[in-house]
Amino acid sequence: MMPSPEILVDAAHITKSEPPPQDSPRSGGVRIEFGALSHPGKVRENNEDQFLVARLAKSMQVFKTGLPDAGTTYFSEEDGYLMIVADGMGGAAAGERASALAVRTVEEFVLNTLKWFLHLEGKEEHVLFHELREGLDRADRAIIERARRDRALRGMGTTLTMAYSVARDLFIVHAGDSRAYLFHDGELQQLTDDHTIAQVLVDTGKIAPEEARHHRMRHVVTNVLGGPEVGVHASIRKLSVDDGDPLLLCSDGLTEPVKDDEIAAVLGRASSPDEAASDLVHLALERGAPDNVTVVVARYQLA
């Protein structure tokens, strides 16, 4: 683990997650450990990032029954997990409001609407894809409606990168330039594309991929929740995780100062998700941390 002189100085500004208990029920034979940290960085006064780590559990509570020796509460062995990182924008406190509202809206949607317990095959998988997009659409509309009621919040918006996990199935839902990575077999795979003008220039062959990292348009985001008008394009992909795979969600406060090979080195050597999250935030702070830094790390263990 990396030394931590700077983190001790700034410890009062760190937001650390309280993840689900690590002895919680397994999700279809998969056990997940979590680590998460958020820090305002070295330049900005406010932290406009938000994150969430949550477990979805099915249960049945029995009030009355004629069955002998019946229990009062039953729990399913299959859980769902929700992870979110959102990076707000809009000036003053608007960015903080946008990212917080997005996370709360998606959280409420998942709790009350999302059919997360589907078998995730065939037609049911398409239903889930539709609902995941609807969750981001609702958050988009909620942010714009709030901004319409308060002139000080006009134009506020937020990125949102979400991971939804059931058993070995992992769904990544994304808008903006926060990122999701999977570290698999010693290689770091970026699971999201940056929705920025710089990335558009890369995709159209106008600049080389290595130029995008320092291009002046790298921070101009083309797809966010909120912003000047209603409408967000939620990119969704599905993949399967393997034993020992770490998943990383992060704001660009990490990826701007820290290179992918350095992120891979941390995920490869860290003994736990907590250690990985701490080391990644340390790296960003050592490089000056010009923006808010938020990381969520999940490590999968297959039974």
List keywords for this structure.
8 helices; 13 strands; 7-stranded antiparallel beta sheet; 6-stranded antiparallel beta sheet; alpha+beta; Phosphatase 2c, domain 1; 303 residues
Q: How do the SSEs run, as a string of H and E?
A: HEEEEHHEEEEEHHEEEHHHE
* Count of β-strands: 13
Structural class: alpha+beta
Helical residue percent band: 25-40%
The percent range for strand residues is 25-35%
Number of domains: 1
Q: Give the C-level CATH assignment.
A: Alpha Beta
Unreliable runs = 1-12, 19-25
**Amino-to-carboxy terminus distance:** 27 Å
What is the overall shape? globular
Count of helical segments?
Answer: 8
Q: Describe the largest sheet.
A: 7 strands, antiparallel
Radius of gyration in whole Å, from Cα? 20 Å
CATH architecture: 4-Layer Sandwich
Average pLDDT: 87
CATH topology name, in short, is Phosphatase 2c, domain 1
The CATH superfamily turns out to be PPM-type phosphatase domain
